[in-house]
Amino acid sequence: xxxxxxxxxxxxxxxxxxxxxxxxxxxxxxxxxxxxxxxxxxxxxxxxxxxxxxxxxxxxxxxxxxxxxxxxxxxxxxxxxxxxxxxxxxxxxxxxxxxxxxxxxxxxxxxxxxxxxxxxxxxxxxxxxxxxxxxxxxxxxxxxxxxxxxxxxxxxxxxxxxxxxxxxxxxxxxxxxxxxxxxxxxxxxxxxxxxxxxxxxxxxxxxxxxxxxxxxxx
Amino acid sequence: xxxxxxxxxxxxxxxxxxxxxxxxxxxxxxxxxxxxxxxxxxxxxxxxxxxxxxxxxxxxxxxxxxxxxxxxxxxxxxxxxxxxxxxxxxxxxxxxxxxxxxxxxxxxxxxxxxxxxxxxxxxxxxxxxxxxxxxxxxxxxxxxxxxxxxxxxxxxxxxxxxxxxxxxxxxxxxxxxxxxxxxxxxxxxxxxxxxxxxxxxxxxxxxxxxxxxxxxxx
Amino acid sequence: xxxxxxxxxxxxxxxxxxxxxxxxxxxxxxxxxxxxxxxxxxxxxxxxxxxxxxxxxxxxxxxxxxxxxxxxxxxxxxxxxxxxxxxxxxxxxxxxxxxxxxxxxxxxxxxxxxxxxxxxxxxxxxxxxxxxxxxxxxxxxxxxxxxxxxxxxxxxxxxxxxxxxxxxxxxxxxxxxxxxxxxxxxxxxxxxxxxxxxxxxxxxxxxxxxxxxxxxxx
Amino acid sequence: xxxxxxxxxxxxxxxxxxxxxxxxxxxxxxxxxxxxxxxxxxxxxxxxxxxxxxxxxxxxxxxxxxxxxxxxxxxxxxxxxxxxxxxxxxxxxxxxxxxxxxxxxxxxxxxxxxxxxxxxxxxxxxxxxxxxxxxxxxxxxxxxxxxxxxxxxxxxxxxxxxxxxxxxxxxxxxxxxxxxxxxxxxxxxxxxxxxxxxxxxxxxxxxxxxxxxxxxxx
Amino acid sequence: xxxxxxxxxxxxxxxxxxxxxxxxxxxxxxxxxxxxxxxxxxxxxxxxxxxxxxxxxxxxxxxxxxxxxxxxxxxxxxxxxxxxxxxxxxxxxxxxxxxxxxxxxxxxxxxxxxxxxxxxxxxxxxxxxxxxxxxxxxxxxxxxxxxxxxxxxxxxxxxxxxxxxxxxxxxxxxxxxxxxxxxxxxxxxxxxxxxxxxxxxxxxxxxxxxxxxxxxxx
Amino acid sequence: xxxxxxxxxxxxxxxxxxxxxxxxxxxxxxxxxxxxxxxxxxxxxxxxxxxxxxxxxxxxxxxxxxxxxxxxxxxxxxxxxxxxxxxxxxxxxxxxxxxxxxxxxxxxxxxxxxxxxxxxxxxxxxxxxxxxxxxxxxxxxxxxxxxxxxxxxxxxxxxxxxxxxxxxxxxxxxxxxxxxxxxxxxxxxxxxxxxxxxxxxxxxxxxxxxxxxxxxxx
Lengths: 218, 218, 218, 218, 218, 218
Description:
- 6 copies of one chain form a homohexamer.
- By secondary structure, the first copy, chain A, is α/β, with parallel strands linked by helices.
- Chain A contains 10 helices and 8 strands.
- The first copy, chain A, folds into 2 domains: 109 residues, Rossmann fold (3-Layer(aba) Sandwich), CATH 3.40.50; 102 residues, Rossmann fold (3-Layer(aba) Sandwich), CATH 3.40.50.
- In chain A, the strands form 2 sheets. Chain A has a 4-stranded parallel sheet with strand order 2-1-3-4, with helices on both faces.
- In chain A, strand 7, helix 9 and strand 8 form a beta-alpha-beta unit.
- In chain A, helix 5 packs across helix 10 and helix 8 packs parallel to helix 9.
- Chain A is globular and about 45 Å long.
- Chain A starts with a strand and ends with a helix.
- Chains in contact: A-B, A-C, A-E, A-F, B-C, B-D, B-F, C-D, C-E, D-E, D-F, E-F.
- Chains A and B meet through helix 5 and helix 10 of A and helix 5 and helix 10 of B.
């Protein structure tokens, strides 16, 4: 029950890790496990393709292996859950992926969920994984923000597109929405306001599932 | 973020509530929400039929209404999730059901899950709910302990049957098992040992999901 | 084979029961079972939420219990099928729900069915039940009339919205449509004309399934 | 509302038609439609293969066309529903198939249904159709009687195998059973007794669905 | 391994067979099986209804039977796969249907597939078959060209509508498209260009699956 | 249309590549593409875990990149389809995986398919992928040979276990079987004989799908 929950951002962009770290603040409980957020130096600046997903598995597993003795649990903080099943074979400590945890949490918030992807090109990859989870009948739809990377740094523009996409998903019949990315917790409330349905920030969802597992020793 | 998580046992058997209370111990964190376990006085001694399930909804909602001002969240601690969707309409505080939370947690532990029911007659009701969750393709099977209520008090006998059922579910292809009942956390580890796959105690799963939701203010 | 088919309207609005009663006329056959339509006095004026659904189960089961000796079968005439599975445990006489019977009948009329809900807020509840029936792959869509209750009394306005929704469902790919409400048989033909696909009035569907079961003694 | 329900046995074995005719007796109501059972002279003695199924469509449609002016509805009394969708294009009168109607009726009697096939070789064909109905998640299993045709004439032997298969399906988790054949209504009760779950005779199920449709003019 | 692959066009329009024949050219390999395209003289000019589908089975099986001694494999070149399962019972040589082969091929080209139907009225029939294949969760949508038969002869008009439909399917989320017809290979590239996703010509897909089976002797 | 189909064995065991190479013989057609089988030197001796699967992606993509200019298509010859979706992003030439191609081919041979895994531990990984393909309703079951690696070299022992497993899958209801491994084509016919249903060797299935794609220039 001692040990640290390591939240690993598998892309190399420290600003993303910082956003994740801030999002963990309310989950750092006196008496609960320590939560530490890391950047995978070997990762690409952003994970955009299946190639990127597969490419970070090896360095990610290396990090998991190194941290293992001090770890209570691991969270893989990329919405494609890279290396999730590999990492589960590598360590007996709990390993949570933010896509899996985010979507499962959304299932407790509404009958059909929507997903906000950053890129159009990620949607087929996500749908393949949602089918793999057996959840096609719970999906209302997935839509992309579709901004070029440089424009994602513009908070006003990003907030505007995210709330637009959130509203569109609600119109598609989504009763809950999952943000399909890590490090964007600052937009959660605005999307929730705009869409009128609960919005799940998936890294937070994964971290609280990890805390529970650590406390119970499963 | 202040307030108490109320874990409501909708049957009137205090011994079950006591078991639930002990199971919450590792989830009571210094900096986290208070967790209080209650017995629904108006409930039947055990919830065995759809009639029982439907019958506890009204008193349960009454209790939810009364506790609402002091509540941070609610957990309904019966594996048929009585009144879950009604309660979600009654309060804007998080409401978690142990069936839903237990099964969703199992999905992070293995590709196919099995369920240990207490009674054979509960299986069709559970399957209806599992279908309603859209999870038929993740289910390996459900099997019943099938002991008469009086014999459930006999710990050795119950442990024996539970481990037998756990082993049978693993042979059916279950990679994770959910205990389909509340208040039986004491058997979790023995079933896990016997079956050789992770076993989810569903009340604990629901409580940790509630803690996360409370901390995040969702 | 003697005995009466009791069609129970679980809301307390007698005008709805009257509409149901008129819809039963063509199913009252010489030599067939008697059909009697009742209003559940304890019900709310309309069933709009899961809370309403759960709330009518107890008085409904009481009525079922009282009528049991004289009953040939029961029809629960509310599109959320309140207490359906409870009632089936309470009596060995056939119990049919209008949602289940209406949707199953629609499956004989087209590959994909649409549902006309009265209220937007009922759609997630219906989808949960349609998933529970395992029928997600047969659903073309569900859309709401969305009129406030007072305007539902205005027949012209209601007919106009119902036919609009019917047409929209046909455009969604519905090859058959189920009216997601009881007591609105008078609109059936107009929707069918407008949408150009068969339209099922679900109470009639449930009553004829009940007649068959009564005649056969199943 | 005038006119006759024609129940067409697409095999040429008159003894089967006679069994169907006897099974219709309780559904012949004073004020209801006339029910007439016919044998398709051009059919094979039994329908055992997809080839047989496809082969009877042309003569069946010819009979449907000839009877159309006098018909209120048609029932195709073979468990592979030969020509069902073709016949629905040929006439605007209701056309019910016994597989479709029998299975839909079973869905009102239990969460999971089982099917008793006569021949092992028919099972893949039936499963293809059950998938086509979108009902794979409601199926508990299908098992074959597996007696050679000559032995099916031996009532004791057939009853024995049917009850054995019914019991096996209940053990597979079937909460309701559909007899996967026409003209064997005489075994229904014995299978129900043996299996301990409701058993649907599919021709009767289709005929009562037809009566309802005729009375309502859909 | 000797013998001919017979590609049977079950409609009587020789121009369609000619289009199929041209499409087979790249699959006629020096060392591979001979490929011969035939017109079913008894077929209707086009297969537009389930009635048409069922109606060609008997003459088709007759042709299959006659060619059997010289055949290496059969391809049924109509997008409703008429007689596919019957033909598989009739001969032990491989029998491929263009709908089945075309859709399975599309599954290797994208997560979700779309279908271009010629007629609106064929869509429910195709969906019934796609459900029967268990593939509802992979389908993005099906849309019809919807031109009257005489206008299909106008290549410019047909190309225009086909590319419009292809674009619409891509917007529906299709990552690959199947042409829901035989004999229109000449439009494949234009649709692919317009839609920006791979497009499968289903007869070619079926023929190459047949070649493989012939070479391997399965 | 010129160029070579590269069949890459992602494990480093040359004997497996040799078996694959022999299995390609009947698919090397005069006039067809050249087929060359390669061993991935960096791969582990066998691919047994998700870790192994993820680990070979990087070297595999490197090989794909190097061969790209000379390649007509690629086949990834490991039943977990490592790097399949990554490789499809890396090259515009066709990339086929043997799991995907083998299972899709089995769907043309029977309503339900079974899979023969080498190791018990691979079954959850395969099921995750089969769910991802949307094919859970077509799966009859998967069973493992379960021999330790050293015993797999003993042909008699392996043949014995494979035929046993094949028979068990047929009893589970499989109408077609896929061999869940590469390089074991020599056992195909024996399993087919024993099980009495068609057996797919998945590398051969993928290679013939690749040939078709190459010839057509898709």
